[in-house]
Amino acid sequence: MEAGLLLQFCNWSTLVVCMVIKFPQIFALLSAKSSRGVSLKSLLLELTGFLVFLRYQSYYNYPLLTYLEYPILIAQDIVLLLCVFHYDGSMKQAIPYIAIFLGGWYFLTLQKWIIDLAMNLCTFISAASKFAQLQYLWETRDSGAVSALTWSMSAYTCATRVITTLMTTRDLMVLIRFLIMLALNIWVTTTILRYRRITTKHE
What we know:
Layout: H1 2-20, H2 23-32, H3 40-59, H4 69-87, H5 94-107, H6 112-140, H7 148-167, H8 172-202
C-alpha cells in the first residue's frame, strides 16, 4: 500500500512540476528581453533527448504515467526555443530545425534497432545538453537570464523518475539516464547560483 502511494505521489508530482517547469525560464527571457546566458546548443540537444525518450517509451508501450510529462516538456521547450530565436533575431533559423525534428520522429521507429540505438545514445545526447549549458556558463561567467528554479525542478523530476523506474519497468538504460541527468541538473543549478552571486557582488 505504501509503495503504491509513493509511486502515485512520484508520478503525479512529476507531472505537476513538469506542467510549469519551463515557465520560470520563459518568463525570465521575456522579462529580460534577452536570451543572454541561455545556450541554444543545450536547448536543441535537450529537445532531441526528450523526443527520443518519448518515442522509446511509447514504442515499448510503457505505462503512460511514467512518461506523460514528456509531451508537456517538449511543448515548453519549443516555446523556449522560439523565444531564444526571437531575441537572437534569427526566427527563420527555426524552420530547418522543426523539419529535422519532425522527420526524426518518424524515422526513429522505422526499425526496432534504430529506436534501441537512439535510446542508447539518448543519455549521451541529454548529458551533452547539460554540458553545453555548463560550458556556456563557464565561458561567460554570467548566468544572465538562466533560471535556477527551472534547473532545480528538472533535478527533482529526475529524482522522482529514478524511484518510479525502480518500481515499475526497471529498465536499466532508463534508470542510468535519470541518475546521470539528476547529477548534471544539480551541477548546472549550483553553477547558475554561483555565477549569480558573483554578478550580484560586482554590481
